[in-house]
TrEMBL record:
Pfam families on file: 5-FTHF_cyc-lig (PF01812)
Catalytic reaction list: (6S)-5-formyl-5,6,7,8-tetrahydrofolate + ATP = (6R)-5,10-methenyltetrahydrofolate + ADP + phosphate
Source organism (scientific name): Nematostella vectensis (Starlet sea anemone)
Protein name stated in the entry: 5-formyltetrahydrofolate cyclo-ligase
Record-linked InterPro entries: FTHF_cligase (IPR002698), FTHF_cligase-like_sf (IPR024185), NagB/RpiA_transferase-like (IPR037171)
Gene3D superfamilies: NagB/RpiA/CoA transferase-like
Positions with a binding annotation for ATP: 11-15, 144-152
Residues involved in substrate binding: 57, 62
EC number(s) on file: 6.3.3.2
Enzyme class, broadest EC rank: ligase
């Protein structure tokens, strides 16, 4: 079994490799793959039957979640987005696309509720049915390589402890982010589905 130090080093190397692969993607390829992945996600029964869903607000290096957000509001689902303060992440209620666009921008150019913005937190009102989990690398069997901060792994654990249920965990991945396997530890949450794009179309676990 690999040591913690070996896994840490393997993760660091793979993160560097994946970032280069994503940088090499054209904007057109990202748009096309994002559209196909969105279509696949919206057709999933787990998504269609969900009422309370957490969505990350995508950076240019990630599968776009804009059309997913639009569908959530059109479908009258409750939407929650992450707010990062120090080492903690909360999932706060978002009411509309206009609400999102009114939020201040972080240094990463992503909209996020201000530190003093009082909003409904998902764990205080019943938890979540689905969490769309961002990441750098994914495998078909649900392994995920995050950015190393542990925000989502910790939050999902809180969901289980406080709400006594595990949300359905779904990753969204460009073709360049998919691997047969990625290095993980016992603290890394396994996803229930990874929706990704291949040259021949979309696929998912």
């Amino acid at each position: 079994m690999a040591t913690s130090a070996a896994i840490y080093e393997a993760k660091k190397l793979l993160r560097r490799q994946i970032k280069k692969r994503i940088l090499a993607m054209s904007e057109e390829a990202k748009r096309k793959e994002s559209a196909m992945i969105t279509e696949k996600l919206l057709a999933m029964e787990e998504y269609k039957s969900s009422h309370r869903i957490s969505v990350y607000l995508s950076m240019p290096s990630e599968v776009s979640t804009f059309d997913i957000l639009r569908d959530i509001f059109n479908s009258n689902k409750k939407c929650y987005i992450p707010r990062y303060i120090g080492h903690q992440m909360d999932m706060l209620r978002l009411h509309s696309l206009e609400d999102m666009q009114s939020l201040p921008l972080t240094p990463w150019n992503i909209h996020q509720p201000a530190d003093d913005d009082i909003r409904e937190e998902a764990l205080n009102t019943g938890g979540l049915d689905v969490i769309l989990v961002p990441g750098l690398g994914f495998s078909k069997n649900g392994q995920r390589l995050g950015r190393g901060k542990g925000y989502y792994d910790n939050y999902i654990q809180k969901c289980i402890e406080l709400c006594h249920k595990k949300p359905h965990l779904i990753g969204l991945a460009f073709s360049t982010q998919m691997y047969d396997q990625v290095p993980v530890t016992e603290n890394d949450m396994t996803l229930d589905h990874v929706v990704f794009c291949q040259s021949s179309g979309t696929n998912s676990k």
